[in-house]
Amino acid sequence: MSTKLGLITYQRAFLGAVSVFGVAFLVALVSASILAPKSQTKADSLEFTTDVSGISYTTSVISADNLKINLNATPRGDLAIAHDTINTKTDNPSGYQLYFSMNQSTDYDASHPGNALYKDGNTTSSNFVSAGSGSVSAPAELTNNTWGFALVGGANKQTGVPDTFSNFNDIYVDSNGNSSTGATHQTVLEDSKFAAVPLRSAAVKVQEVSEPTTSAGQNLDVYYAIKANNALPSGEYIGVVNYYALSDTPISNLDAIALSPSEISSDGGESLRIITSLYSSHVFTSQEVTITLTNKTNSSITGTCTLDSSTSVTGNVVLTCTTPALEVGDYTVSVSIPSYGKSWSKDISIVKSGPA
Fold first, then answer.
1. Closest by alpha carbon to 68, among 19, 29, 126, 114?
2. Is-contact 3 277, C-beta < 8 A?
3. What angle do CA 3, 60, 114 make, to 5 degrees?
């Protein structure tokens, strides 16, 4: 079955980084005791509509509050957890998928990771909170001066959360004393396990619902945690994470790409425009998209079409890339966006430029 996809990006900004469709989650290292997360009223919502045969389906993602967590930076180190609820609604009969990642696609440089939290948002600073060592497949307790995220696993796993999160803790307690089971606790669970937030080029699926939601929508509880000691200077440590809502609508004969032009020069250096079947407002980067050309007679003859831009035209994602120099012949253009499970292919001819 072919699929038409709609995708939106919802940004969650840590430590005061403000952006369009962003909300602030403040992690402040202070000399006071651990305080409860503080809310700053700010509703953030983003939605998109897909139109299929004259029928419109709407998908939205919303989070009601900004969050703030204050952490006492003691010599031994302390853990604080902030609880965030993401609500997704759709009337799409195929439901939705929710992906999650950092806003950053790559490391800033060799010594500045793309999934760290930086003091005052300065990504060249030597003062940052590193990502924890845990992963989705193997979550781990945080060590000092690291941070991570978690979804509840085990018996309390929420609707649509993939089985890949089964190794996470069954219960989380945030710094406000609230637990994922609804019980009230006085202390944060120090042995809670977390994963590093992946870079945007490796976004992870955190929820999938295969039918329309109710009018109340479907919640996803995300737990963010930081553990720190006083080796770090006091201040605000900033990073940005994204939620991507992907809505699938079955329609016939659309899971394809259109190429312009249909013939390109063997000299390379031309602009190849690729219209995909992905419906999105998301601007893809070269780290997220792979475009290759493979000779149909000799598969060892290949080249990479370098992505120049990603735009949206009447909803469809349009990729523009610069063609490589290759031998004359018939080729297959393969386009892959692996983080979102999408790939396409289409034939193209490479012809000799200039006089015959």
1. 29
2. yes
3. 85
Between vectors from CA 106 to CA 143 and to CA 66, what angle results, nearest 5°? 65
Distances, alpha carbon 75 to alpha carbons 28, 72, 145, 192, 317, in Å? 16, 10, 11, 20, 50
Structure confidence at residue 33 as a pLDDT band (50, 70, 90): very low
The reported pTM is 0.69
- What is the distance between the alpha carbons of residues 295 and 308, in angstroms, rounded to a whole number? 23
Whether residue 123 contacts residue 115, with contact meaning beta carbons closer than 8 Å, is answered with no
Q: How far is Cα 205 from Cα 340, in angstroms, rounded to an integer?
A: 9
At 67, is the pLDDT very low, low, confident or very high (cuts 50, 70, 90)?
A: low
d(CA 316, CA 5): 9
pLDDT at 57 over 60: yes
Average pLDDT, stretch 60-70? 66
Percent of all residues in the chain with a pLDDT value above 70, rounded to a whole number: 77
- Distance, in Å, from the CA atom of 294 to the CA atom of 300, rounded to the nearest integer, reads 8
Using left for φ > 0, alpha for ψ between -120 and 50, and beta otherwise, residue 328 falls in beta
Residue 57 near residue 279 (C-beta atoms within 8 A): no
Q: How far apart are CA 123 and CA 138, in angstroms?
A: 28
Distance from C-alpha of 255 to C-alpha of 310, rounded to nearest angstrom: 18
Residue with the two structure tokens 């009447």:
314
